[in-house]
Amino acid sequence: MKKNFVVVMTLFLTTFLWCCTSSKNATNLKPNRSHLSGTWTLSNIDVKMPAAYKVSTVFDEAPFNDFKESTWNLIKNGNGSFTLTNGTKENIYWGVEGKGDNAQFVFKKLNGMKPRNVESGFKLDLGPISSNSFSATSNINAGSDSTGTITYFFTKK
């Protein structure tokens, strides 16, 4: 009887511990500021637009190709910056809004102002996040009844 009790308790504890272990998958983290903090390289950009629509600039800054291999420094307190390969640097204030599949990477270009004084900014839908990469997609109005997307792929430095 005592042996059966030990076997049953061992099975119970094993099952209990297995069920209660973290189910977080390191390749699909729930988006929050701590997961995106760090120094990132914008390694690739995927543009999907209607054939007649041309993207001239992104983030009111430069052509999207100028952002390839740019460095994004995202500090956990919300301050940060991006630096293009040509040396242009912009200070930003950034964060994560929403949860789960509705999470967005948001940022404001500061242009020497305090974040609370900057009214406009950018919102990008967050895709899969891992400890060393994430993607963010900007939905673009490409004319009457037409849309496109620009997806930015970041890798951790």
Mean pLDDT equals 86
- SS-based class: mainly beta
Order of helices and strands: HHEEEEEEEE
Percentage of residues in DSSP E strands: 35-45%
- Write the CATH architecture name: Beta Barrel
CATH topology: Lipocalin
Output the number of helix runs: 2
Using the coordinates above, name the CATH class: Mainly Beta
Q: What characteristic shape results from the CA principal axes?
A: globular
Residue windows where pLDDT falls under 50 for at least 5 positions = 6-26
Major beta-sheet overview: 8 strands, antiparallel, barrel
Termini distance?
A: 59 Å
Radius of gyration: 21 Å
The total of beta strands comes to 8
User: Numbering strands along the chain, what is their spatial order in the largest sheet?
Assistant: 1-2-3-4-5-6-7-8
List keywords for this structure.
single chain, 157 residues, Lipocalin, 8-stranded antiparallel β-barrel, 2 helices, Lipocalin-like domain-containing protein, signal
Explain this structure.
By secondary structure, the protein is mostly beta strands. The chain has helices spanning 2-20, 33-36, and strands at 38-48, 71-74, 79-83, 89-97, 104-109, 122-129, 133-141, 147-156. It has a single domain, classed as Lipocalin (Beta Barrel). β4 and β5 (104-109) form a beta hairpin. This is Lipocalin-like domain-containing protein. Keywords: Signal. Residues 1-26 form the signal peptide.
